[in-house]
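Quick one: structure for this chain?
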Amino acid sequence: MSQFLKFVFASCLGTALALVLLCVIAFGWVAGITSSATEKKTVEIQPNSVLKLDFQQVIPQRTNNLPIDPFDVENDQVLGLTDIVAAIERAKDDIDIKGIYLNASVIPTGKASASTIRKALVDFKSSGKFIIAYASFYTQGAYYLASVADSILMNPQGAVDFRGYSSMVPYYKGLLDKLDVKMRIFYCGKFKSYTESFRLKKMSEENRLQTREYLTALNDILIRDISASRSIPEDELRQIADRFDGFSGEKSVSSGLVDRLAYEDEVLDLMRNKLGLEEKEKFRTIELEDYFRGKGKNIDFSIKDKIAVVYAEGTIYDGKDGDPGETYDGKYVKLLRKIRKDDKVKAVVLRVNSPGGSSLASDNILRELDLCKKAGKPVVVSMADVAASGGYLISCHADSIFAEEGTITGSIGVFGMIPILDATMENKLGITYDTVKTGKYSAFGTPFVDFSPEESALIQGRVDEIYGDFLQKVATGRKQTKEQIDEIAQGRVYSGIRAKEIGLVDDIGGLDRALQAAASLAGIEKYRSAEYPEAKTGMEQLLEKLLHKDKFGDDVKASMIRQELKEFYPAYKTMQEFRKSKGILARMPFEWIVN
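Got it. Here's what it folds into:
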């Protein structure tokens, strides 16, 4: 009942606020209100400051390129990976910033993005400034960052979750059987394991093989980097993980994972000593978001030549537009067309962080990128945490492709799934269906009548056709034969390292490498980056939703579900993404839960 009342209240509130806003617009006051609401507070960087990194929010690739909770009025900006790195780089040479306080128990991003932040921290240390890490508890990802620090401290009651990687995949076949739901599944690629969750009750050997291969690569990177920072031999680190020494505070210290057990006041004293301050002297920290707001980016707008950096994040959908952090073909085709016609844009860097989605939408985006190349603008792809299936399709014709070592890529395959509910309706609800047809396929596609063998063959033929087209497009882009690509495709997922070995990417590197390559291909030395799509602040997103109160209601519901489901939300989100998707899908295997 309480949840129902919350939904009713939120809906009424959204309607009321929308009406108020519309009245304001009618009187022409909205510009003043928007200006006042979005005005950034002045941030002054004091001498002897320490930059604080706590990573409370999910980290998008582009700042604010994600839905911002409409009720989180204090969180008007969520820094993206690019701006996080830019802020750390600015702090390295800022005489007012003396060090970094890494106070993070989690790092809410993928392995490739975490590695990018870690490299920025290593570079920061090269200036001679200190990094001190402290947390009550370190997840494996947070410890990966913390291992860079000069000193790693932890609460005496804490632990380090350092034990290697594992992956869990949910399987729904048993549930579907209980509900008498028959899933008609059509796919190409023996490794295309997205569909396994609906047709099997456990991992296939193919999926187990590719998952183990990727997790091993990811674990090797983890061990190598921590070993280099902590001066602990790699074999010894593997033994520490196998013994799970991090589960004990004392063993975390004795094994060398942590330097010291301490309370936060002791950590602050340590930083005060690092700064050469007396015990009672004021200690200044500045949040990363505030520092970025105060310093911003170094952009020379006098430079006319631009490289367009286009962020393709999240699932790829058919349609004109959707939430920030989702890639709708209508929006991106229009965006790329605008870039193509802009004479100041000399090259395009596509930053991909997507598991794929609609095959049709992916193909439409690829077409527009091809037209950019035809117009004389080189296209370079920079892969982030994931650029798989449709995410790889939109990348495959680039002049050059860069991936991170821990990038998930490949998954070149397609599938379609349709639930058949006739038995569910009859056995659970007593509802039956009968049909009158004027043609052989007149009732084709309804979920309440099972497919005939001819109809099943029709769908599988369509899937085979799209898969063949996918293979040919990759073969053209990578300058290989269709048969060569088919051997390494089959829906198989690869790490960035492995993808380079088999020719799916050109080199290992981040966004900086991609920009350098784009500038070189375009024959320009001086340029400035122009980022797309437009990023909207939390207030701007809220105002937009209030003008479309149906979106506001959906956002309220999503926020409440996210808070209620917590760690189970990703599975729910994936199911919702599947429900929103149309037609044949080019999407990577089902969401992995990596621990």
